Each structure stands twice: as structure tokens, then as C-alpha cells.
Amino acid sequence: MARIDVEKAIEELTLGEKVALTAGRDFWHTESVPRLNIPALRMSDGPNGVRGTRFFNGIPAACFPCATALGATWDTELLSEVGALMGEEAIAKGTHVVLGPTINTQRSPLGGRGFESFSEDGVLSGTLAGYFCKAMQEKGVAATLKHFVCNDQEHERLAVSSILTNRALREIYLMPFQLAMRICRSQCIMTAYNKVNGTHVSENKAIIDDILRKEWGWEGVVMSDWFGTYSTSDAIVAGLDIEMPGKTRWRGEALAHAVSSNKVAQYQLDERVRNILNLVNWVEPLGIPEGAPEKALNRPEDQALMRRAAAESVVLLKNEGDILPLKKDGSLLVIGPNAKIAAYCGGGSASLAPYYTVTPFDGVSAKSKGEVKYSQGVYSHKDLPLLGPLLKTADGKPGFTFKVYNEHPNSGEDRQAVDELHLLESSGFLMDYVNPKVKSMTYYVDMEGTFTPEESGVYNFGVTVVGTGQLLIDGEVVVDNTKNQKQGSAFFGTATIEEIGTKELKAGQTYKVLFQFGSAPTSDLDTRGIVAFGPGGFRFGASRQVGQEELIANAVEQAKTAEQVVIFAGLTLEWETEGHDREHMDLPPGSDELISRVLEVNPNAVVMIQSGTPVTMPWADNAKALVQAWFGGNECGSGIADVLYGDVNPSAKLPITFPRRLQDNPSYLNFRSERGRVLYGEDIYVGYRYFEKSDVAPGFAFGHGLSYTSFSRSDLRIDTVPEQTKYTESGEPVTASVTVSNTGSVAGAEIVQLWIVPPKTDVGRPVRELKAFQKVFLQPGETKTVQLVVEKKLATSWWDEEREQWISEEGTYQVLVTGTGAEELHGEFEVGKTRFWLGL
Ligand code: BGC
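# beta-D-glucopyranose complex -> structure
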């Protein structure tokens, strides 16, 4: 790749070439123009790892803790380290542009992708995103803030119009983007699927051109979300530079025609092309050639960082009687559905094949010097556990063969496989599976292996497909998911529900398993309103039928006499995933009963929940020790064990409010698409802003998190600079200095939080708003002075819809400084004169 003379190239490019540059070439690449040495760029998801070019059968990658986990660290330095490693991971995957971070806002605990965004609060989310992007871009890799803006639910995500006031748009939903950009101008922005107040964002001039480009002065590339372009001229004119993915649906000939007929002016097309060529130049120093091979890094120092990130994200919610940390030389009973599975990431485009994973059970077993016992308690899967890892190929390897054919199994023709793979996971989304020998989108795959059950009994077998699928055991059809298919939620909401069949099997006997799959066009499911992601996907699973009572009773019996007990419950990528919101806030069936009954017989049992977003905890008052972990990436189990055994002192704080009940959350009345729109009825009162204003007690508040040590805060001092007539870019810092001491007996980190309480005015304002935060590490007895700086205009302003400007009103503003524990320090500063402003 050599640098391009952008203006010269714009003169030399033909209309056809310019048009081609404005759309993807395939799922993960932009278009090239070899004649002018303009290369294709590679893009890759995403928020918690860099997957590379293959969803299906991809090269393994580092999986970082999900964004709510990183949000819980409140640690800008850690986010910089994570961003830098993400940049290196991108380079290893030959990627120029990373499709992340995600900084939408968790209006509701139910958002299917809530786990992908850092926080319900724009200051926390935007600041962390800014440092993450800065470090990644310092490695030369372009970051993409997404999804711009108000993609805060999955229900009808392409079609729904988010109806909200300009005040909420500015103060809540645009705020993370604005603040991230103040720290780092990300090279790319991805538009949201949805409409905002009636117009799809990908063709919304008011949002792309007026706010992003003109008001914020941002000059990067705007790309659509995948299949989120819905027009030719409107999108180009509004400023959507690239339609993704390819092949184009809206550009190509349609755009050439629009330019020829002057629906799109030549200069407008040139503006799009200029942005794209500037991006090509920006990533040029990476020296990544077209079609670069994809490699795995997986270095020891990266594993150490992932482990630190996982541990630093674990939030200690309760610890009555100092039950935690656990004693290493004591024995331990591990109970629960999440103990022996690694809930390492959420579902959808955030998911990827990890280098490796560590389950919580593995994590605690590696640390305990005493006996570690295990009882399942209940299962938490939504669909049956994958059967693939339990199968064996003809030559005895774990897994199964995957043979691809152009012809239907019953075509009568002599079928020749056009590809043969060996797979372990019996779940695959084929959208980016490329094979030149496959003649059309309609093709067939036979997946074959043998299964030798360890226990006799009746087994359930399940099949979920985007396409059609039949599961045969020893030639007998056990599950037929080819006809009368019903819409389900897997694979971005494009798959059928899981069809289940049963068969009695004998322990030790070997059965031949054949799964026959037909790609998406073989299905007659009516998928109107759902984006078709290529040739489809498959999933098949199995488990022996066992009574829940039997499992719970076993766990309870063992818990009665156990010395130390930890229950691992929570959600997985099946429950929190893209294309589908959660239906309720509860744990999977049986988990609450398990936890309650174990706590009855052993009140000291520690409850550890893994989820990306809040769950209801009806037993919370009875739990003395309660811990929230998230989808913690490769090292999730080790990070959890580090905290449980006290090798890491927990310092994380909740980045989102945990309501007691779903009904208590402010979006309860308005969280789905109804007749094409969703009303953001809670306005600016999202998350803690609502709970504090209406005095509704949350289960656990935003910012809450305990430590194994204690801290004190004192000597708050506020310094300001003289006010100018107008707010300027250089700003007017308000600096809060505070003394923080570790008053306990173990080392630990404190997160100091600075809030502003506005003066009374004639508009409604939140009780207080977070404006700055700082993490500080202290040895026992150590004291440090921490400085928190916030610009006066950002500390004080709200969005005035009458003037369509930010207003910073005159008056006295209180400063609150908080941290672990209830102690609050108070200070104040003045705004002498009301001022209005626009910009970043
Ligand atoms: C998601 C994006 C993602 C893209 C590519 C879409 O479904 O909304 O966040 O980057 O797919 O995987």
C-alpha cells in the first residue's frame, strides 16, 4: 500500500469506480481500485475481540471481557491497555478497521445487546470508549464508534423509530459519542439500524451531517450497519460514506443513475469518496497487504492482561460477616449451572472463537488447596448443550465431519463433496463461509460422527436452523426441522425455534449421528422484516433427560454440611444476544429455586452471578455474600477465582443500575416496537437519574461495589479559573482535589466519583449527575491526593430545546465526591453568568 494523492485520485477515478468505492466488496472488505493503487480495507468485529474474516470456523482470537465488565472497572488505564491489545489483535487478523466499541445506552435491563455497551451513563461510557479508541488508534488501527445513535433495543431493530426529545438525545444518547470524541477522534462511525424520530439514521442528514460533521467537526468515515442502508440518494446526500456489507443493494448502478440524473450531485459523491480515501491513507502505515493471512497471538503477557481485566471487573455486591475471601486451605463445594461452562462472551456479532476459556470451576480448582466438590444443581441452557464436542469422527478424533454438496441428499445424483471440514462445535453461522465450488446460495451439508453415551436414559436432541435440518441416529429421523418451521431468536433472530426429539440410548453403545443441513433458501420460513445474513446457520444439541428436583435436592443435601459453598448461576450468550431482547429479567428456570434452597440450608453460601445485564435476585436479602461477574472473556474463570480467594481485592463498581424488579426500571412501559416506534418516555431519566429522582430503591445502585478493605475521603478542595464571556474550546476546568486513604488491612483500589448537583431552575434536572471519576490504588495505610478535572460547561449544562443549544445557567453548583461506602464530601463552585454553547 502506498499513500494516495486523494485529490488527484478523485480527478482520475471514473464514475463507476467512485460508485464502487462507496460499498463493501464482500462481508468484511471495502472495494479496491488496483488501477490507481487503491487497496481494499478489512473490517472486523468488534466490541470484545477481533474475530477476523470468518464467523464460521474462524481463527481463534482473544476474547476480552464484555463491555459492561470493562465498564465496571471504571479504569481508563486498563481500557487503554485493552484498546492497545485489541489493536495488536486486529493487526494479527490483517484488519485495518475494528467495528467497535459499542456505546449505546442501556435504557432497559432487557436489551439483548446491553452487555456490549459500557454503561447507562454517558460520562462513564464515553470516557472509557475514548481511552480504548485512543490506544487502539495509536497502534494504527481505525476504531468505529457504534451504533450512532439510539440502537438501544433489538426488537424490530431495522424498522423501529426511536421517538425522543432532543434533550434526551443530546444529554443521554449522543453524550457517550461526544465525550469519546473529545478524547479521541475515532476514524469511523457506524450508523444505527433504527430510525430516530422518523428517519433512519443511515439517511438522517440532521444527525450525520449537522451534528456529527458540522457541529462536532468530525471528518472520518460513516459506514452503515450490516444491511442497514435503505436508500440510494438520501443516504449518500445525508453523508453515509460506505454501504456495508457487499455486494451492494443500493449503490452500484442505482447510484450511478442517481448521479447521472443529478439526484446526487457529483460533489456529494466526491465527498464520500474523499472520506474513504483519507481512511485508506490513515491506515496505510500499518502496511497490511490485501488478503493478509489471519494469525493468532495468544501471548503470555496478553493472557495476564485478560486475567487482570476479568478480575478487575468483578463487583462485590454484598459481603456480610466477611464471608469472602474464601479460605484456600478449606474445602469447597461448587454448585450451579455456570460453574462448568465458560460464559465468556455475549451472543451475536460480539461472539468469536476464543483462544481458550477458563470455567469458574477450573478457576477455583486451580487455587484451592482443599477438596473441591461439584453438584450441578440446575442447567441454565436455553437450547440443549452442543452435541458436537461429544461426538467422534471415524478416525477417533473429537468432533464430526462437515461435508458440503451442491446436490440435495435425495437428488439421486452421484454427489461429490465440494468441501470437507473437521469441526468440534455443532453450531455455525455460514454468512461468511466462502467456497468457490459452491454453485449457489442453495447447498447441503452432511455432518457425521458417532456418539457413545456415558449414561443410559432418554435423551433429548435439538435442532435449530436458518435453513432446514434433520438429525438421524442410526438412520432413524429423531428431529425433523424441515417443515412447518417456527420463528425463533437464535442467529440474530433469523433462525427457527429449537425442534426437539427424543430417543432412548444405552450407556457404552456407539450410535451413528448424521445431521443433514440445507442452506437458507431451502427453508419456507417467512422471514419478512428480518435481515437475511447469507446462506444460513445450524445448531444441534443433546442432553439426557433428568428431573430438576433430583438435581436441586442433591445440591441442597451436599450444601448442608459443606465448609465453603459457591453457587455459580447466571446467563450465557444464548440469553443475551443480538437480534433479540430478553423476555424478562429473571435467571433461567430453576436457578432462583436452587439458590434459595441452598441458602436456606447454608446461609453462608456465596452467590456468584454471571450476566451482561441485571437479573432479578429474589433471594438477595438472604445472601450474605453476593458477587456480580460478567461475561469475562478468555480468562473469566481465573479472574473470578482471583477475587473469590482474595488474590485480587475487588474494586469494581456497577456501571448500570440493578433494579429490584423489571417493573421498577424507567423504560418498563416503553421497551418494544409498537406500530413501528418506541417512545423514550422516561426522557433524560435513564438509569440512576430515574431511581434517584423518583426515590425508587434499586436492588443495587449504579456505582455500588464493595472491597475487602476500607477507604476514607477528606479535604475536598475545588479550584476554578476566571470565567470568559463565552465558553471556548480551551475550556474552564473545575478541579476537585481530595485525599483518599486505605484505612483497612489489605491493599486495594478505590474509585473516586465526582457528581454535580445543579441549582434549582425552572426545568427538571436529575438530582445529581456523574461528571468525573478516578481509580487509585493504595497500600494499607497509604494516603494519596486525587485530582478530578471536569470542564465547567460539561459539568453544568443541559440541552435547551428552545434555542437548540447547550445552556450553562448561572448559580451555585454543588460538588459531591463519593467512593466505596456511604461517606460523601461536599464542595461547590459558581457559574457567574448564563452562557450558551454548541460543539464538542
Ligand atoms: C451488528 C454490528 C456488527 C455487524 C457486522 C451487525 O449485525 O449490528 O454491530 O458490526 O453486524 O458483524
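# post-check
The chain has four domains: 6-286, 315-381+547-694, 388-544, 711-837.
The mean pLDDT is 96.
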